[in-house]
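re: ur question from yesterday

yeah so i grabbed the chain u mentioned. its 75 aa long if i counted rite. heres the sequnce exactly as i have it in my notes:
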Amino acid sequence: MTGPEVKETLPIPSAIKEELDRSGGLISRLPDHQELKNLVEVHHALSDLIRMKILHLLTSQPLLCLRNQGNYWNF
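ran it thru and got these structure tokens back, copy pasting raw so excuse formatting
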């Protein structure tokens, strides 16, 4: 399956084109490879529901003790 066929190309507004030309384009605005990898790891860690619940609990109560099946974790 392929995407929709583009039939018309709209010109880039001159103010946007000038800004892109001045800054070196969109690709130059990307973080380097290692920084992107680090961001992926952080976002992956934050994508877990249990981790997010713990983080939200920690923001409202910095010192808390969690119990899971008889095990205790102190934060």
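noticed a couple things. The longest strand covers residues 65-68. also The CA atoms of residues 32 and 38 lie 10 Å apart.
anyway ttyl
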